[in-house]
Amino acid sequence: MRDTMAEGPQPKRKREEEEEAKNGGAVTQGAAAAFTLSDLRVRRILRESARDKIVFLHAERIGLSGEGTDAVVILEKTPFQEEKIPDLLKKPMNAELQMHNDIYCTFYLSPPPELSEIKATVVYPATEKHIQKYLRQEVHLIRETWEDYKNITLPFIQSQSFSIQWVYNILEKKAEADRIVHENPDPSNGFVLVPDLKWNQNQLEDLYLIALVHRRDIKSLRDLTAEHLPLLRNVLQEGKEAIVKRFGVPSSQLRIYLHYQPSYQHLHVHFTALGYDAPGSSVERAHLLADVIDNLAMDSMYYQKRALTFPLRADEPLFKKFQEAGKV
Ligand code: M7G
Q1: What span, in angstroms and rounded, lies between the C-alpha atoms of 263 and 55?
Q2: pLDDT given for residue 23 in this prediction
Q3: Which candidate in 33, 41, 201, 228 could, as Cys together with 9 as Cys, close a disulfide (CB 3.0–4.6 Å)?
Q4: Apex CA 186: angle with CA 181 and CA 191, to 5°?
Q5: Is the CB of residue 223 below 6 angstroms from any atom belonging to ligand 1?
Q6: d(CA 316, CA 140)
Q7: Which distant-in-sequence residues (6+ apart) come within 8 Å of 47 by Cβ?
Q8: Does the CB atom of residue 194 touch ligand 1 within 6 A?
Q9: Which portions of the chain are predicted below pLDDT 50?
Q10: In angstroms, rounded to a whole number, what is the distance separating the alpha carbons of residues 291 and 286?
């Protein structure tokens, strides 16, 4: 069993923590002004999951003039780190016996801070679309033909979609430059591989990286043709090699896929640990990259011919557009 990573993530994390400690936990990068978590006030819970130990909050930061700016805060209990598990039983702590019956008993532990981390992801300032993304909603499946894509989806995503500035920041080394795991710098067939926002890199069980292509003219799976095969093959091959080299995870234990619809309209590929039930890895959203490559090799226009299924929340404007067109 793998118990440590082949290289680096741990020391890098230490460096980040030291930096953060120097800043008093302040976030200084990006367009937003420096702020700390304690500047944020919870407005309401958008969604929570007892199973995943995660809560999505609509928060706000009150400015000097008293008006609030929206933020989304995601709090998630982090997975166990194998090397720290023995300490959970050994370290002196308050272990309260809750019940004891025959051979069964339950304790409640209050572990020291280093053994009870919570990861906080902040989107600030957050748009209404970010808040909607995390709000629990009724979900419906859409079956989108190529004509539906041209007539309904494409005009909609051209008129409003998430900013992809964060992607350009990574490609231009303005953000996350020290996190890059691999880069092929070729402008048409190259890409950058970085740990996904969702992965804290402390354990391999929930390994999650994304490959962002350098080309800026491919929005999603729908735009792909055989012309893009060299790029896709590079992502698949070099991505696998970089992950086994850096993290020791073999390609047979990776799920490598694209989302349709993606939230961000710039082609990217998800690499997750096969044993991790990553959000968005289910059949209604994930398309394995190896299958995408085979489909394009068989028929260059495959993704401009076939219907694609994807989930939409009931309150999403795109869902309303499909409803208006009588497609739901
Ligand atoms: P998607 O399929 O477009 O959307 O994937 P989803 O978020 O609905 O799955 C985008 C991927 O990029 C997701 O896995 C995000 O967690 C990840 N991601 C988003 N942002 C804003 C960042 C970021 O700033 N840095 C990194 N490293 N990953 C991000």
Answers
A1: 20
A2: 40
A3: 201
A4: 35
A5: no
A6: 10
A7: 55, 56, 134, 135, 136
A8: yes
A9: 1-25, 28-31
A10: 11
End-to-end CA distance of the chain: 47
pLDDT at position 33: 55
Identify the CA nearest to 255 among candidates 223, 287, 302, 301. 287
Length of the chain: 328
- Contact between 211 and 192 (Cβ < 8 Å): yes
Number of helices and strands in the chain (H, E): 10, 14
Catalytically annotated residues: 268
β-pair type (254-259, 286-288) = antiparallel
Q: At what angle do helices 289-298 and 229-247 cross, to 10 degrees?
A: 160
The alpha carbon of 326 and the centre of ligand 1 are apart by a number of angstroms equal to 31
Closest CA to 182 of 169, 195, 172: 195
The whole model's pTM is what?
Answer: 0.81
CA distances from 35 to 63, 169, 308 (A): 11, 20, 42
Residues tagged in the binding site annotation for substrate: 166, 176, 196, 198, 259-270
Is the CB of 73 inside a 6 Å radius of any atom of ligand 1?
no
| All residues at 6 or more sequence positions from 155 whose CB lies less than 8 Å from its CB, including other chains | none
pLDDT given for residue 223 in this prediction: 98
Q: What pLDDT, on a 0 to 100 scale, did the predictor assign at position 5? A: 42
**DSSP state letter for 211:** E
Q: Could you identify the atom of ligand 1 that is nearest to the CA of residue 179?
A: 27
Query: Using a 6 Å cutoff on CB, does residue 196 contact ligand 1?
Result: yes
Taking CA atoms only, the protein residue closest to ligand 1 atom 8 is 263
**β-sheet with 54-62: strand ranges across:** 40-49, 54-62, 68-77, 118-123
Q: Which two tokens stand for residue 115?
A: 């053994």
